[in-house]
Amino acid sequence: MSKVLIIGCGGVASVAIHKCCQVPEVFTDICIASRTKSKCDKLAAELAPKTTTNITTAQVDADHVDEVIALIKSYQPDLVMNIALPYQDLTIMDACLACGVNYMDTANYEPENTDDPAWRAIYEKRCKEAGFSAYFDYSWQWAYAKKFEEAGLTALLGSGFDPGVTQAYCAYAKKHEFDTIDTIDILDCNGGDHGYAFATNFNPEINLREVSAPGSYWENGHWVEIPAMSIKREYDFDKVGQKDMYLLHHEEIESLAKNIPEAKRIRFFMTFGQSYLDHMRCLEDVGMLSTTPINFNGQEIVPIQFLKALLPDPASLGPRTKGKTNIGCIFTGKKDGKEKTYYIYNVCDHQECYKEVGSQAISYTTGVPAMCGALMLLTGKWTTKGVHTVEEFDPDPYLDALDKYGLPRSESHSPALVD
Ligand code: NDP
């Protein structure tokens, strides 16, 4: 019996909300709150006849702490699920602290305006000291650890697929398969085809920022940074086939390097088709990925936001996308003194997801772990206070829940390795 406030009603949130409504014995009451209330009302109306979860809706601009505090005070939830954008992570964490409520999200903090001088100064210092230049990192949210601990609250960071399930796979490998882990390769393959020359599978602004940034990986205790898309490998993915994949910086590398300190190398690869890369390079070259406002005919516009308005809404890709995703982790390490390798992954079918919840697999593979993370907190399976990432908790009940609610694991004890 729990009351949950869900902030955001986009592609990922919509799947998480569908899934919460499939577990009404835990999610007895949910409030869907977002900037655009009409989207929340539409989803609530669609789900109400199919569930016994009691659904209400609200309008909130989560950029404003006082608005989130007022909403939490009036709704009195047991948990706030932040499935809006990473820009809102800190304001929602502040509101949770002010009201004494547990918090969770699916992506770590990054600022909307990367030209803000105060943020920029801290960012540039971090780039120099840490050695990677992505706009997002954990430092902002880890800085809340003591406050959450002292308040007796839990903040669960990054319960999507990657970050999220990939870290649970690491915790699982550490718990059941290895005494020591030497290397981790996270492989994110989308074998889906939506038929457009160019579209992003989730929020275009967040997605394009991520893939146009320099790549980096963790090796022997430090970051190695490389130009964007400059390390390419091919991999033959189960149920998908041969794909080109590129090394990217990804947020979970940072927490895994901290929590699995024996790992000598941690890398992240994502598959991209040539058409996607060609479009992205052109857009970048002409300045369309910029977050710096420009004046156009007397009106201020942010190029990447304008581009977002032109691109297909990721939520509209559902009916068109065919094919499968395959996301997982390959490990090398030792067990009982012997070298071994292990691969754990999930295969998810775009059309099956669409049939079940009306979304493609990218939103599905993020929304289901968001619900499962909430389930762990609400049912008392994960109780550690403070600010924590997924690999810091027991992976077993989480992976069992993922198996049950739509993202079953597959495994191999003799996988092909990535060189
Ligand atoms: P969408 O753009 O589809 O949805 C974002 C939602 O947040 C919209 O409903 C939007 O409202 C709402 N929102 C935005 N700003 C505010 C605000 N200030 N106050 C209240 N609501 C706001 O994004 P996605 O669903 O694709 O992504 C959601 C999150 O999931 C992101 O943080 C993304 O980074 C993360 N993600 C994580 C992945 C993982 O594997 N861990 C993978 C993919 C995504 P409006 O309708 O008004 O715009």
Strand element count? 18
The secondary-structure class comes to alpha/beta
**Beta-strand percent range:** 25-35%
Alpha-carbon distance between the two ends = 49 Å
| Total domain count | 2
CATH architecture grouping of the largest domain? 2-Layer Sandwich
Helix residue percentage: 25-40%
Please identify the top-level CATH class of the largest domain: Alpha Beta
Number of helices: 15
| Computed CA radius of gyration, to the nearest angstrom | 20 Å
Please identify the oligomeric state. Answer: single chain
CATH superfamily label of the largest domain = Dihydrodipicolinate Reductase, domain 2
**Ligands and ions found:** NADPH dihydro-nicotinamide-adenine-dinucleotide phosphate
Net shape: globular
Write structural notes for this entry:
The protein is an alpha/beta fold and 419 residues long. It has two domains: 2-157, Rossmann fold (3-Layer(aba) Sandwich), CATH 3.40.50.720; 165-359, Dihydrodipicolinate Reductase, domain 2 (2-Layer Sandwich), CATH 3.30.360.10. Helices cover 37% and strands 26% of the residues. It is built from 15 helices and 18 strands. It has helices at 11-21, 37-47, 65-75, 89-99, 117-130, 139-142, 145-150, 165-177, 204-212, 251-259, 274-285, 303-310, 350-357, 361-378, 395-404; strands spanning 2-7, 27-34, 54-59, 79-82, 102-105, 154-157, 180-190, 215-219, 222-226, 232-237, 241-247, 265-271, 294-296, 299-301, 324-335, 338-349, 386-389, 410-412. The strands form three sheets. Strands 7, 8, 9, 10, 11, 12, 15, 16 and 18 form a nine-stranded mixed β-sheet that branches. Strands 3-2-1-4-5-6-17 form a seven-stranded parallel β-sheet, sandwiched between helices. α1 packs across α14 (361-378) and α8 packs across α15. The longest helix is centred in the C-terminal third of the chain and has 18 residues, at 361-378. The mean pLDDT is 95. NADPH dihydro-nicotinamide-adenine-dinucleotide phosphate (NDP) binds at residues 7-13, 34-36, 39, 60-63, 83-86, 88, 106-107, 158, 160-164, 202-203, 206, 314, 366. NADPH dihydro-nicotinamide-adenine-dinucleotide phosphate is lined by residues 7-13, 34-36, 39, 60-63, 83-86, 88, 106-107, 158, 160-164, 202-203, 206, 314, 366.
